């Protein structure tokens, strides 16, 4: 197996851009159903966004922004891995592997990378397998891409980059992967920081034992995670069926991304604003990455391979949490995790890195500062030139 690390730049052929514009112009729009967001993405709102995508969105500008961050490709466990690697000017910076959310991409971290390097981190941001330029081979590897397998891949990537000790941060799907690093690479992992997830009640009444009435009021927040459109059950069973629409219609891909972000951000009923927290260019950059790479379907590995859900408990390394929710969640989390940091930040959006990057970077820095930022350095014989 080759361990080569190759520089990479995004360069979408003009023919692909022309094809996207043509498909958007020829969209067959469904009739409007009565009601609003509760039935799904309203037709008028999606038409407005799709028209902006077709006529005003500047992919080349976004492509240049992404290419302003050093990108690389390597192969690990038979999988092509795409990653950003941005080194801090600080001589004793701590390496930090950050894992993006679903349905999103490493574009989620464009505004987070530089604040993290300013806080003294070397940032490694891989694209999850099956997402963006971490494309699955053809035919797809039949072995499941579980959260544990991704964690082992990240551990090998950090070793390949020459990092002896490192930290981890994750959001959403990334918060599921990151704690697994503690189980597969505890020798080299300093600590795990995540944006929420841990400590949220799952419905087991034993989790609520010993909590006060005020604590139990926090159960209402957990209900938001348990509801939704039923997408999780479907993706866990029949992801290939939806993939046909996502690959053939950019509007089908866009509608799905908007619906997922809308549900988490509480948009139903807020029809006066299409994107109250995320600007259109941020959303359309990720929609374009999914479209140009054809990875809308393969990204559903998070559900089909059992890598979705809530973060696992682990007490192997310390855990820090930002946007963690009420104190009751922390008390539940502390039963099976070494919680050394729990911020009181409130999320303006589920995609925290896209809307609150500066505060998130500061919170990550605060957590690792509590750990003394131990174990900086590189592994002998490994390359850190990329």
Describe the protein's topology.
Layout: E1 6-8, H1 14-25, H2 43-55, H3 59-67, E2 71-76, E3 79-86, E4 94-99, H4 110-118, E5 121-126, H5 147-160, E6 166-171, H6 173-184, E7 189-195, H7 213-216, H8 219-226, H9 231-235, H10 239-248, H11 250-265, H12 280-293, H13 301-304, E8 319-322, H14 327-333, E9 339-342, H15 352-355, H16 357-370
Parallel strand pairs: 4-5, 4-6, 6-7, 7-8, 8-9
Antiparallel strand pairs: 1-2, 2-3, 3-5
Helix pairs in contact: 1-2, 4-16, 5-6, 10-11, 11-12
Protein name: Epoxide hydrolase
Domain Epoxide hydrolase N-terminal: 5-109
Keywords: Aromatic hydrocarbons catabolism, Hydrolase
Could you explain the architecture of this structure?
- It comes from Pseudonocardia adelaidensis.
- Belongs to the peptidase S33 family.
- Keywords: Aromatic hydrocarbons catabolism, Hydrolase.
- GO terms for molecular function: hydrolase activity.
- The chain is of the alpha/beta class and 386 residues long.
- The protein has a single domain, classed as Rossmann fold.
- Helices cover 40% and strands 13% of the residues.
- The protein is built from 16 helices and nine strands.
- Strands 1-2-3-5-4-6-7-8-9 form a nine-stranded mixed sheet, with helices on both faces.
- The chain is globular, with a radius of gyration of 20 Å.
- About 3% of the residues have low confidence.
């Amino acid at each position: 197996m080759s361990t080569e690390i190759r520089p990479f730049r995004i360069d979408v052929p003009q023919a692909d851009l022309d094809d996207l514009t043509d498909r958007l112009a020829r969209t067959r729009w469904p009739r409007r159903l009565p009601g609003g967001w509760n039935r799904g993405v309203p037709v008028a709102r999606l038409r407005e966004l799709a028209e902006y995508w077709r006529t005003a969105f500047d992919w080349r500008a976004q492509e240049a922004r992404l290419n302003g961050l050093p990108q690389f490709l390597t192969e690990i466990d038979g999988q092509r891995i795409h990653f950003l690697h941005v080194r801090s000017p600080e001589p004793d910076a701590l390496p930090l592997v950050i894992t993006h959310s679903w349905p999103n991409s490493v574009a989620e971290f464009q505004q987070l990378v530089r604040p993290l390097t300013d806080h003294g981190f070397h940032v490694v941001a891989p694209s999850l397998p099956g997402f963006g330029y971490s494309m699955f081979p053809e035919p797809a590897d039949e072995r499941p891409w579980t959260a544990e397998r991704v964690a082992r891949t990240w551990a090998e990537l950090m070793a390949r980059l020459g990092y002896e000790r490192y930290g981890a941060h994750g959001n959403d799907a990334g918060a599921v992967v990151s704690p697994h690093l503690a189980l597969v690479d505890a020798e080299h992992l300093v600590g795990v920081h995540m944006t929420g997830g841990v400590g949220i009640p799952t419905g087991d009444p034993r989790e609520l034992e010993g909590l006060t009435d005020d604590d139990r009021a926090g159960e209402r927040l957990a209900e938001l995670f348990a509801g939704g459109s039923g997408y999780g059950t479907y993706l866990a069973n029949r992801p290939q069926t939806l993939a046909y629409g996502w690959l053939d219609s950019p509007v089908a891909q866009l509608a799905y991304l908007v619906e997922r972000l809308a549900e988490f951000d509480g948009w139903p009923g807020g029809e006066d604003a299409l994107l109250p927290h995320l600007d259109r260019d941020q959303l359309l950059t990720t929609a374009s990455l999914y479209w140009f790479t054809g990875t809308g379907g393969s990204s559903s590995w998070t559900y089909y391979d059992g890598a979705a859900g809530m973060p696992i408990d682990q007490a192997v390394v310390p855990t820090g949490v930002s946007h963690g929710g009420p104190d009751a969640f922390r008390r539940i989390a502390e039963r099976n995790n070494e919680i050394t940091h729990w911020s009181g930040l409130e999320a303006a959006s589920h995609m925290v890195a896209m809307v609150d990057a500066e505060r998130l970077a500061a919170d990550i820095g605060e957590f690792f500062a509590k750990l003394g930022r131990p174990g900086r350095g590189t592994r002998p014989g490994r390359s850190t030139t990329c």
